[in-house]
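Dear support,

Our group has been running a series of protein-ligand predictions, and this particular one with zinc ion is the one our PI (initials K.S.) wants archived with full inputs and outputs. We had some confusion internally about which version of the output was final, so please treat the block below as the authoritative record. The input we submitted was:
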Amino acid sequence: MPTDPAEPNLPPQDDSAAGENICPQCSGSGRLDGQPCPTCDGTGKVMEGIGGG
Ligand SMILES: [Zn+2]
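Confirmed final output from the archive:
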């Protein structure tokens, strides 16, 4: 089965970025059931609501 060409190639888990949280929906995988996770937009991470804006 061919994969999407526009698929983000995310590196392994990285604990360097701040303000980001591992997407609880896809557990940081960025994909759900073979599809890009809508919660994190396929990034595997979700932005935390810091401050606001
Ligand atoms: Zn996700």
